Structures are given as C-alpha cells and as structure tokens.
C-alpha cells in the first residue's frame, strides 16, 4: 500500500529504517506544503490590494486544498 514511500529500502533494511525513511518523506512533503500555503497567502494579499478578488479567491481555494493535504499527511504520521 505504501510501497511508493519505502522505495529506497528493500529486503536488507529493517522495519525501523523503513519507518524512519517514511517519516522523513512525510516531513519533507509537509515542509513543501507549508511553503505553498504561505506563497498562496502572499499572492492572495497582493491580488486583494490590486482589486482582483477573483484571483484572490482562487489563491485561497488552493491554500485550503494544501491545508487539507497537510492534514492528511499529519494523520498518516500519527499511524
């Protein structure tokens, strides 16, 4: 099911090594999503200042999508 996460480690790795690698992947993805969220907020502020409400709303929708992705990743990290 999560074979895409554990690609780098095959039979020679222990389970703890695989869990560490999976955690590192999740941490990296979470960092990327956090960066995207902050970028979308900045873009939304810029569009609001320039009077382009439609583009600002699109930025906020993308931000909300990234936040949902992050919550999914966090729920997987707990497991």
UniProtKB/TrEMBL annotation:
<dbReference type="InterPro" id="IPR005024">
    <property type="entry name" value="Snf7_fam"/>
</dbReference>
<dbReference type="GO" id="GO:0000815">
    <property type="term" value="C:ESCRT III complex"/>
</dbReference>
<dbReference type="GO" id="GO:0005771">
    <property type="term" value="C:multivesicular body"/>
</dbReference>
<dbReference type="GO" id="GO:0032511">
    <property type="term" value="P:late endosome to vacuole transport via multivesicular body sorting pathway"/>
</dbReference>
<protein>
    <submittedName>
        <fullName>Uncharacterized protein</fullName>
    </submittedName>
</protein>
<dbReference type="GO" id="GO:0006900">
    <property type="term" value="P:vesicle budding from membrane"/>
</dbReference>
<dbReference type="Pfam" id="PF03357">
    <property type="entry name" value="Snf7"/>
</dbReference>
<dbReference type="GO" id="GO:0009898">
    <property type="term" value="C:cytoplasmic side of plasma membrane"/>
</dbReference>
